[in-house]
Amino acid sequence: MTDATRIVLASRPDGKPTTDNFRTETVTLPAIEDGEFLVRVIWLSLDPYMRGRMDDAKSYAKPVALGDVMEGGTVAEVIESRNSDFPVGKIVAGSFGWTTHAISNGDGVRIVDPDMAPISTAQGVLGMPGITAWVGLNDIGRAKDGETIVVSAATGAVGGMVGQLAKAKNMRVIGVAGGPEKCDYAIKELGYDLCLDHHAHDAKSLGKAIAKAAPDGVDVYFESVGGKTLEAVLGNMNIHGRIAVCGMIAWYSGQGVKDAQPLPAVWRNILTKRLLVEGFIIFEHFHKFPDFMAQVGPMVGDGRITYREDIAEGLENAPQAFIDMLGGGNFGKQMVRVGADPK
Amino acid sequence: MTDATRIVLASRPDGKPTTDNFRTETVTLPAIEDGEFLVRVIWLSLDPYMRGRMDDAKSYAKPVALGDVMEGGTVAEVIESRNSDFPVGKIVAGSFGWTTHAISNGDGVRIVDPDMAPISTAQGVLGMPGITAWVGLNDIGRAKDGETIVVSAATGAVGGMVGQLAKAKNMRVIGVAGGPEKCDYAIKELGYDLCLDHHAHDAKSLGKAIAKAAPDGVDVYFESVGGKTLEAVLGNMNIHGRIAVCGMIAWYSGQGVKDAQPLPAVWRNILTKRLLVEGFIIFEHFHKFPDFMAQVGPMVGDGRITYREDIAEGLENAPQAFIDMLGGGNFGKQMVRVGADPK
After folding, report:
1. Complex ipTM > 0.90
2. In whole angstroms, what separates CA A143 from the centre of its chain?
3. pLDDT digits (tens, 9 = 90+) for B270-307
4. Residue B34: how many CB atoms within 10 A of its CB?
5. Which InterPro entries match (chains A, B) (predicted)?
6. Which residues does B324 contact at the CB level (< 8 Å), separation at least 6?
7. Contacts across the A-B interface (CB distance below 8 Å)
8. Could you tell me which residues come within 8 angstroms of residue A266 by beta carbon, excluding any fewer than 6 positions away?
9. Which of A28, A158, A268, B68 lies in the 20 to 30 Å Cα band around A135?
10. What are chain A's domains?
């Protein structure tokens, strides 16, 4: 019998989450049955979509029930197995949640090759954020070589990948990020042509800065934030521009709604510029994972794609790290080290 | 030498246009040169897009300059010609504007077959509004047989055609129109399954009425109005629904902007339902005119497609008819009889 320490949803947040919305508990897991295996979690990924799951609102996925373990992508090691596809010692990626241990039958779990790249990337550039960037750029944003793209949350787990993939397509790549340190990183490490610090701008001046940064206008906007960045980019979109709507983190906790640009101005841009605006969630595109890995895996392996992780130590620090991330306090892919590296 | 009476833009409107924004003048046209021909206008079409041209704002087309003739699609008769492609007596469709006579070199002018359908349809169901409906439904709305569509301005020149073309595709077709008379017409004459009177609803109750009318949700929204209709439909859109943005007449003159739904709620719908929202203007799709005529021409000829015209008598009444149309006062395609029928 194995004890699992896990973090459950204690209450639904009213606006921004607080640590009171979470509760830590320890449960004893049952013995595994035929076809099952037991994992110990090494890495937990924290991602903005989790904020949506905390609300009891109709969305693309069911909310986390009160008292249930918080959802989350993880990288883990098989430590006991009655499933020959997942033998002891294998590293796997799966959605085991905010927990130290879990039992699985293998559904939705994939084996990770630890020789290709550090295993944490299985929840980063080579995991959900990576394929989100890849699908959003190509299939939703319909990005073409030589076009200009603006990437919001430019150094985030998804945005940082969008920028690098766009640069590999010879696009002009303009990032928007919070603070000079992130912008510096976007240009020096991720290869952005330019990065604008939204802390230094209101919507209007950010719009002017984008106009200057994109003398030929903006063809693709990778949208993760909403808020003033959306407003600033909209006015700079080219005719037949595309907006890939991947998130709206600026509005997730209900803030900024009153300050949002009036809808008619947005609609007018869509109409007069014949924009295509499309929302997407990556879960519907996972069948492309093999294609994504075949194309992007080698780029991570040989260093053409770089990444940065912001690591919180210990599962007990996951709630605060998550709250900080929602406020833009992280720098790079937010991960939680739940357990020791495999030997 | 021929005198042309014409209506020019006297001043730019501040909000809703008034008759003071227009001025009537008479000019003497020069003699036609080689390659040119002279027409007398029989029908002038009034369309919502003209409101945009009255503003000095960046849009998809240049504004009408102060003192210039108001733009407009017309059906006319060639009465003098030095162009063998357009001999005297031919009926033609072209953008001659709000005028009784004009000289053309044939650019953008097409010959109309008066035996196929009444010639006014060349600016209606078989003209710009017709192809707008056809392209918007099929190419932008990506409508499929058996899906559910909501059509705003359901009895308008474009909407009435969208509804009928959608019905011909075996879709469930729900109209939204202003007043019981229009709704009655939509159901009895245009074949809508249902039509909701937006005068009888606020956004919330209209949303409930649409939910009831569309038990399987809404797959396609043909958007011409914005305002509360947009808000009401959005909440009923199905996952992977499409919104073809053809106009936003409710907001054209700046009214209703404060009452508009907050942008974050709209963005949330786009994201969580993976909607595709696309603006279009028909001028970019005119190369499909032959395909459109081949498919839809016979449907008008044999009565499968019906239409209704709201006729203002005399060019001098065009400004008031235009103002009334912007307020939803017309019932059917708004036309102005500028000259007598051909003999």
Report:
1. no
2. 20
3. 999 999 999 999 989 999 999 999 999 989 988 999 99
4. 7
5. ADH-like_C, ADH_N_2, ER, GroES-like_sf, MDR_fam, NAD(P)-bd_dom_sf
6. B330
7. 112
8. A234, B263, B266
9. A268
10. 2-123+308-337 (3.90.180.10), 128-282 (3.40.50.720)
